[in-house]
Design a protein that fits this description.
313 residues; mainly alpha; Ferritin; 2 domains; 0% strand
Length: 313
């Protein structure tokens, strides 16, 4: 019996050492990440929120490091932040925004809470009170700090998504329609660009008028966000038709690009606005593919009515 107890005690010590080392590394990495994001921030309120997050992660790091130091002082001294992650998050912040990065990190925190709860049994009794405080921090306090972040690009995200989503459905439909009429990829590509250019202007104008009713948004910025996101999607979707001279492979590649774009902006919105990803992605991708099928058959019907003979695919 004593041998078994000694073995279990040693096993728990090893688990505590491993868990403390992992959590200390994660927390110090996030401390450096939030500190770096704070230094990049021009908005004083956002900077203050990020500094709070950074300080909180540092306190969590110190807790786990103290537990590790009690079991293995040398291991505690070897704890270092993963600077590759810090610099990667800082780089992505430039393109994706601070709100996305902080909420992306929060997703990791949700997983950390479950791991912390699982480790409760091996945390020494004298540290349980502080351990409970850390779990509470992870559950609610950090989300409160993140909710304080205000970012212009998030307020215009609806216009950007509107431009992307409408372009993907409409231009994929145009290309599919020409697939039913002609096998000439150049014609399909040019048609998509021409229709897309006119539609981008139309969508930008609609966004301008819509934003005029909202005093918190700039109509000009809203129009540009919608129109430019629309036209960028148009170019990406049309590009395969200029690079590949066979219709089916060009259409397949263009459709794949459309699905990737849908996945990208759906995931971004899911993270920023705390929404489910798979359902929204399935709905958007399904709408795009359904439109492609419908316009293909419509194009084939128009081709027969006007006696247009499609070239070889």
């Amino acid at each position: 019996m004593s041998i078994i107890l000694c073995y279990n005690d040693m096993d728990m010590t090893n688990d505590l050492r491993r868990i403390a080392a992992t959590n200390a590394t994660n927390e110090i990495t996030e401390h450096f990440t939030y500190a770096r994001l704070a230094r990049m921030e021009n908005n004083p309120a956002n900077r203050a929120a990020l500094e709070k997050l950074s300080a909180q992660e540092q306190s969590h790091y110190e807790f786990w490091k103290s537990l590790l130091a009690h079991e293995d002082p040398r291991a505690a001294e070897r704890i270092r932040p993963r600077m590759a992650v810090v610099w990667m998050m800082a780089g992505l912040r430039t393109f994706l925004g601070v709100t996305f990065i902080t909420k992306f990190l929060e997703i990791h925190e949700k997983g950390a809470v479950a791991k912390y709860e699982a480790a409760r049994a091996i945390v020494p009794a004298e540290h349980q009170a502080r351990f409970n405080e850390i779990i509470e921090d992870e559950k609610s306090h950090e989300r409160t700090f993140i909710a304080e972040l205000k970012e212009a690009r998030v307020s215009y995200m609806g216009f950007i998504v509107l431009g992307l989503a409408d372009a993907i459905v409409e231009i994929t439909g145009v290309h599919a329609g020409f697939l039913g009429v002609t096998g000439d990829t150049l014609i399909a590509g040019v048609a998509g660009v021409i229709v897309g250019f006119a539609a981008a202007i139309s969508m930008g104008s609609a966004a301008y008028l819509q934003a005029k009713e909202d005093p918190e948004k700039s109509p000009i910025v809203s129009a540009f966000a919608t129109g430019i996101s629309y036209f960028v999607s148009v170019i990406l979707l049309a590009l395969p038709y200029f690079l590949i001279r066979t219709m089916i492979p060009a259409f397949t590649l263009s459709t794949s690009i459309g699905i990737l774009l849908i996945a990208g902006f759906t995931y971004y919105g899911a993270v920023v606005f705390d929404r489910g990803f798979w359902r929204e992605f399935g709905e958007a991708a399904g709408l795009m593919l359904a439109t492609a099928v419908a316009t293909f058959f419509w194009g084939a019907i128009i081709g027969k009515i006007f006696h247009i003979n499609p070239a070889s695919f």
